[in-house]
Amino acid sequence: MSQIESAKTLSDYERYIRTEELLALQKVPEERSNREELLFQVIHQSMELWLKVVLDEIDRVVGLLDAGDLGQAAHHLRRITLIERHLGNSLEILESMAPADYHVIRLGLGRGSGQESPGFNAVLREAPRLWPAFERARQKTGLSLEEIFEDPRRNWDLWQVIQGLMAMDEYFQTWRFHHYELVKRIIGLEVKSLKGVPASQLRFGVDEAFFPALWEQVPLLTRKTRPEY
Hints:
The chain is mostly helical. It has a single domain (37-225), classed as Methane Monooxygenase Hydroxylase, Chain G, domain 1. Helix content is 68%, strand content 0%. The model has no long low-confidence stretch (mean pLDDT 90).
């Protein structure tokens, strides 16, 4: 059967989603080093796809903030957090893999490492772009961060953006924590990654925030409200 004839047998859904190409990206059974390798590949490939969406959403939020559309910006920040939550939850599926099975797969990774994830590293680079866009939007209101935290209803839309940014931080850190726990459970923390970095170093990334200035306002408000704390 020719390629053209084969294409005619595909449904509109298959052509649009490009299922033939998508489902050909995983190793066929006879190429897998372990029966669990399909799970391992699909989880990581799907993460890269979701991270591609996150990057598009970051760019979208920057544009919305600059256009003054704070409500829509907050909506799309919420979408980012939903994706981040999904990414963290999906690691529970990997935890169902026995460490002995993972080590067979790991031997076939060469020098590959999750630290090389293009989507993850792109989010680390691109997420900070949201802060200058937020600051430009905040400055248009004439309100300081302190004033917004003290009285969120003075500009509720901007407060919703702040909540979106903080949730984005929270769920990204939660995903990183889930990954840290996964590594501890499957590999162990004293083992070095394929890049020579001890797995225990992953713990430091859990505390990294994209928007630290927002988190600094929380204890400031607490101390101002209840000095005895």
